[in-house]
Amino acid sequence: MSLSSSARRKVCIFAIQAFSVHSIPHKQRKGVDQKPLIWEDGKTTLRSVLKDVPNIPAESYGPRQRDSVRQSVFPNLNYTGLYYAILNMIDIVPTMQMKQIEIGEYVLKVLGCLVPFLEHDLLDSLPYTVASTLAIFPPTLHKDTIDLLCSNMLPMTLGYDGCFEPSYASESAAAIITMVLQHTDNGSFHSQILECFMSIKRDLIKDILSIVAYGPFTARAPAANLLFYYWPQLNPALTDRRGIHYKYTAWPPVLCQRQGCVNSGNCQAVKMCLNPALAIHSGDKPPPLYICSDCADELRKEHSEYITDILLPMSHVSTVCENKNCKSEDNLAICTCFSIECASYNGNRPIRYCEDCDNQRHKTQKGELHIYHRSIPDIWDCNMEVQRYLTDGIVSLLKEAQPIESKRLLEMGEEYQQTTAEEDQLQLIEDERKLLSRYGIWLLVELCTPRDDIPIEVLGRLLGMLFQWFDATAYLPDDNVGNALERLKNEYVCDWLDEVAKTHFEVIVSCLLPHPAEYARVGGFWDTLCSRTVQIKEGLNCFFCLVPYDVITFEIWDYVMPYWLEAIRTEVPSEDLHHLKVLLNKSFDMDLCPLPFGTDSDKMYHFISERFDDNSAYVQEQALQWLQILSTLDIYLPIHMLLSMFISGVQNMTELLKQQKTAEPQSTTEDPKPAQHQSIPRHSPEEECPPPLSPVKTHVIVEAFEIYDRETELVLPCYIMMLDLILKQLELQNFPKYLGLYNETSRQIMQLLSLMLGTPWDGTHICSDEQQANSCMFCQNTALWHQVTSQVMQNFCPLSQVKIPTKEIPRVDESKRMSATPTCMSRKGSMTSNDDPESTAEEREKEVPGFEMTNMPLHLQLYHSFLQELGTITDTDAAFALLTSMKYLILNGECLNYTVTQFPDYVKFSLSKYLIPNLWKLLKAKQSQLAYVAVPLMLHCLTLPTGSDIFWKLVEEDFTNEEWKIRFAAVEKVTVLARFLETDGLQNNQVIQTALAHAFCLLIGSVEDINAAVAQRATQYLETIKYAAIKCLCKCLEFQFDHVISDRIMILQRLHLMSNILKDQDILNWEFFLARFDALSLEAQIDLENSGEIACLTGYNDYNKLPGNGLVSKFVVLTDDVLFFF
């Protein structure tokens, strides 16, 4: 265009002034002060240029193709250079120590004046540039900045565009709103910028949701509040919004800016004029010019095409339709229209429509061009972009709730840490953030209605974050914040979760696993870098925080807990298990557990007990390891339930052993190792890639199938674990000890042990002799089982052992009545009798039919199982433990004493077939620990019916055997028996004395054995018997001497022989002969008295001379019995 001479002068001046402005930052860095006139020159020049330009078409401010039309009316000046010079000035404002406000005002005004002169590419970035000054300009300029954005730049850059096509200006809306919300605390600024964008940009909900999702907390909080204000269908009950500190403030309307306004500029502006020249002439400011209705009437005559209506602030957001002609039955407002055509029906304020009115207004061709905002649909109906923003927005809001760390750590078992004053102040801020998290709950409940056909990735992400929110808000104090959030859980969240469970139960379960899907790993510990132990601890805490709200049903518990215990087993090192103690104790405590089924142990431990219904040893071994973990953490497990599970497990594994035995011929070429997934169920396999921010796993677990070749080899280790668990729980619960055999717990334990012993134990021996047994896995397991069993037996059997009962040989009158059994008494009495000692035992063995052990008492079944094991066991350690168990059962529990009258045939059969022969075999010097336990058992057997007969037979057979090696071993056996004799009580049991006298006579007689090795060994071994045992031996021989006349010569000979070998022992002394002579005298006198040759008994002792003396009477009775048998 051609310019006047004055305009050309302005062009030259503008170039000089642009250069001066461009040099300001350089001079500022050098500290050169600028003259005030320079700051105003650029702005004044731009204004003067605008005054001289002709009218510009209003539509030239919109589409990009209109740039050339608009710029053709301006002088060809360096506007771009001035624009960049101003941008450089923005950077130096924070560094200036004075005049920041003046420079800031200058920058804002120049940028406002530059709007008509800039190309569209620069114009697009101008709103963002101006908004960024909020972070660096003084707060006193915030109002000027907001007014410049809302009144000038945004209407000039986006007002005619409509944002139908994305541009830099429209896409920067979220960033501009974020900066306003973040750097200003004035609520009117927030509502002003938001309503400005809502009036010129469609789909603003995406920008608001993106701020909520990704913005900083200072912007997220007001953005969430404004979202709920302008979209009131999201609003919960007013009572639920109490405590929200953010209050909505309507922005003040723009006043008339025209100079010479008839209302003196105090009237509300209702029109906007876009003519630059008119704006400069009438208001000395860049376009647009805001004018009141009176000024608009004056200017409309000549400039009507440049004058448009403007929107007024929304005083409130109605929840019902504001159309005065609305006839809909459902007048709930679902749309807000910001187009002036619709707003004109509401006093130029945005209007709210119901669904019917919205369709009538906006379904037309013209109505589709309106700028309106409908209610947010369900997340499942949104497009992918909005769905992502909404999902992340809910997640971000829920993340605002951070736990009270000190109390939370205390509840999880950590040490209490005293909070400081600074931490208390931070806690007040955290309370506000916790309240902000409620918006996430409201969005979740209102916009995420469960359906059948929804993407599980989105639902899983929301559920994962919701569960983390439960964790963060679990330990709140009983104050306003805590009560508000607790009420929210009960009134909103739990019902929503119930609905989700009806349609997507599997998604809920998957989010509660220790290895959830990738999309569910959100919030809480998943956002931190921590060890796997910490992840499991935090995950368990999150899981258990849902328990009080009945979210964890029996079905969820029963499915999820195996995965958690498996994760603990395979991923938590043993030294870190104590970190989980408090959490697991709270959950499995039968008295304090908040689970709805917590008092029902069958349901609580069903996920474990059902694994014992499986006949797979790998499955049971896995469940046993879970129970070991719980026991290690001092968790009480009901004893009777535990025993019932183990009994069921052993019975089922018996089936496995039977199947294995049947399948052995066909399975020789197959790989016996099972796949890991058969016994270890996992949601995500062990080989999966570690999750983001998760450290590499270093804790390595050696699985059973890596050790054993066959599954059946795992049966015995499972048995050991079962017994070890029983011991641990008995100790942990301070269970009463020594209760005896006749109570329910003892019966269950005995049944379990019997079943274990009744199954064949599979294993591979790698040892060829006892020295190699230490390296044999099977031998070690066998010995360990018996050792643990002995501890179990010790726990429930009575504390004290049964004492040797007092038992005398039958009297004369009794023997006469027992004429049917004289040979038995003779066998018991005489060592030189010709009667066969084997006859009775052999006859009874032949007469004994097969016994049905299942019909016998449990303690007798266990006794029978021990007997069968005793005959096959080879390992010394295992044998010692087995004998110890038998000692507790037989001596402490008196199982044979209680059943000998009820099952006499079986008891006698077991003594002759198993017990006494096996005990006799175990009497070896090199295995003295076995003899230490075997000898008391042997003595007890002698007190039982036919026990002494069987012992007599065994001793007689070995000492009279033609094979010298057997006689050689018999010498050792009797010697070992003598070494461990406990003399207490022996003198009261004449049956034992007779049996021992017989054995000792044979031992002493071996000194003269025809085989030199046997004779030498007998001589040497006699010298090894301790003094007390020798005395006991002599007592037994003396008793035999007094009671069996036919043995006296042999006994004297044996005593004389022993006195020659043991010269330092006082064996044949005066007391011995005095007692024997007295007995012989009494026998002779009784015989004479019976024949009538004497009338009174006399003896060597003075006591014997006193008629009626008790001692005399006793001797008389004994002597009479002896003579009778003789």
From TrEMBL:
InterPro entries per record: ARM-type_fold, UNC79
Skewed-composition ranges (Polar residues): 659-669, 818-834
Record region (Disordered): 659-693, 813-845
Pfam families the UniProt entry points to: UNC-79
PANTHER family: PROTEIN UNC-79 HOMOLOG
Protein name: Unc-79-like protein
